[in-house]
Specification:
Elements (H helix, E strand, L loop, with lengths): L11 E10 L2 E11 L4 E5 L6 H8 L7 E6 L14 E4 L11 H11 L7 H11 L15 H13 L5 E5 L7 H16 L3 E5 L3 H7 L2 E6 L2 E6 L1 H9 L3 E7 L5 H9 L3 E2 L5 E6 L3 H13 L4 E7 L3 H9 L6
Parallel strand pairs: 3-7, 3-8, 5-6, 6-7
Antiparallel strand pairs: 1-2, 1-4, 8-9, 10-12, 10-13, 11-12
Helix pairs in contact: 2-3, 2-4, 3-4, 4-5
Length: 318
């Protein structure tokens, strides 16, 4: 797979996509464009419309209204257009008893890679995904990280212009995520357009050139993640308070009275404050005054997770 120059024409162009299931709206007029050599993270709560949009881009459904074009062709109406995309689903889609190389060879055949080109295409896919050292290992014996990268190898063996990753960090431990992220960046640098859906907001914030937030079937916020965070929070910092154990109902009331909200971790509470470290010191004092002793108080810059909460809670981007 050679480097592909970035083009002014989007690899994928979605315009006014509308779709419903049994009269229940799933997409409400989505516009989305993704260019060559760009990583785009599609974010949103469950039921926001991400799966429906991905199915439309893959040509698996035909939207009730609007258009979806993959390099200028409708993937739902022109089967040949679908050859320009590679899909890595959330669940590993490989043959567990076959080796990595055998799986990639099989997918090359399914993608109708010319027989004389298969060996070279397989070798390139293994190299790009850093799985050549596991080429002869059966999938069932691989770690989660290697399985995910092997699945990417199978998805890119035919050199697609668009790679779709659905929850790529599922089953991947923290140590293996760096290698996975490096693979994704490498494909981006070769000119592949990468569209990923993820609940891993740390990965999205670190990888994506742009993020888009879907809510109730509409794209309500889009842009560079760092720019969006700066615009939303200004000079405010996030203060994280970790308790030694989960507090009781009275403790929850006292934490809430100090402006703290529970995070996804039951023992961790947070709030945003422009005073940063000074506010953290004052908060520590006030917590102890009401009988709550924090295990740790940290101050950090707001993250994509904070922005996601604002969007999901309808506090930002109507």
């Amino acid at each position: 797979m050679t480097s592909v120059p970035k083009s002014s024409s989007p690899v994928i162009q979605v315009t006014g996509a509308v779709h419903a299931y049994g009269g229940k709206p799933a997409l409400g007029g989505v516009d989305l464009a993704l260019n060559a050599g760009e990583i785009y993270a599609l974010l949103g709560p469950n039921g926001a419309g991400k799966t429906t949009l991905i199915r439309a881009i893959c040509g698996r459904i035909r939207p009730d209204g609007g258009t979806v074009l993959l390099k200028g062709r409708d993937p739902a109406r022109v089967p040949a257009a679908r050859a320009g995309l590679g899909l890595v689903p959330q669940e590993i889609a490989l043959y567990p008893n076959l080796t990595v190389a055998e799986n990639v060879q099989t997918f090359a055949a399914l993608a109708e890679v010319p027989r004389g080109d298969v060996a070279g295409a397989v070798a390139r896919a293994l190299e790009l995904t850093r799985t050549a050292d596991r080429a002869h290992v059966p999938i069932k014996h691989l770690s989660g990280g290697y399985k995910r990268r092997a699945n990417i190898a199978a998805a890119i063996v035919h050199a697609p212009s668009l790679l779709i990753l659905d929850e790529p960090t599922v089953g991947v431990d923290l140590d293996a995520r760096e290698a996975l992220d490096a693979v994704i960046r490498g494909l981006r640098d070769l000119g592949v357009a990468v569209l990923m859906t993820t609940h891993d907001l740390d990965q999205a914030g670190g990888l994506a050139d742009r993020v888009g937030f879907l809510r109730d079937g509409r794209l309500v916020l889009e842009g560079d993640p760092h720019g969006l965070i700066a615009e939303a929070f200004g000079d405010r910092m996030e203060i994280l308070v970790q308790m030694t154990e989960e507090v009781d109902a009275v403790g929850e009331i006292r934490l809430a009275a100090l402006g703290l909200d529970r995070t996804r971790r039951a023992t961790v509470w947070s709030r945003l404050d422009s005073d940063g470290y000074a506010a953290a010191a004052d908060l520590d004092k006030r917590l102890r005054q009401v009988g709550l002793t924090p295990r740790e108080i940290r101050v950090r810059e707001p993250s994509l997770a904070n922005l996601f909460s604002l969007v999901a809670d309808r506090k930002l981007a109507a």
